[in-house]
Amino acid sequence: MANWCVINCSNSYYKLQRWMQSFCEVHNSTKEHCSCQKPFDLLPFPNEKQADTRKTWIRNVNRNDSQNVWIPKSHSRICTVHFADGKPTLKNPYPTLVVGHNDLKTARKPSQNRKKHRYFKNSGPGHHSS
């Protein structure tokens, strides 16, 4: 199972498969069998033999918190939308677009249901206010 490393990136193998199974009206076939360009590809991280490139990718993804350094696994992937040229190139070999952040808690908005629950937490049958 692949592991996507950029926080809040919704691209996935599932999304790519759904796109490939959709119908292309231009080529009158599924996109899997036509010459349409994929919306993105999923790339593995450079291996340890490419240590400098790997370190830069990890630093740019910026998933570190104050206690742990994130290290990609062999199944970690990053999609090509995070590269300036749509893929790693000699001019732009590193992911630089919409990549990572340090504070994961700020990425999530509070649920409206949780707010209601907190508001009514101490009310209801059997609870008496002083």
TrEMBL record:
Question: What organism does the UniProt record list as the source?
Answer: Patella caerulea (Rayed Mediterranean limpet)
InterPro entries from the UniProt entry: THAP_Znf (IPR006612)
Residues in THAP-type domain copies: 20-98
Where does this protein have coiled-coil stretches? none
Instruction: List the SUPFAM superfamilies.
Output: Glucocorticoid receptor-like (DNA-binding domain) (SSF57716)
User: In the record, what terms sit under GO molecular function?
Assistant: DNA binding; zinc ion binding
Q: Kindly state which keywords UniProt assigns to this record, in alphabetical order.
A: DNA-binding, Metal-binding, Zinc, Zinc-finger
Record field: compositional bias (Basic residues): 107-120
Location of the region described as Disordered in the Swiss-Prot/TrEMBL record: 104-130
The entry's protein name is THAP-type domain-containing protein
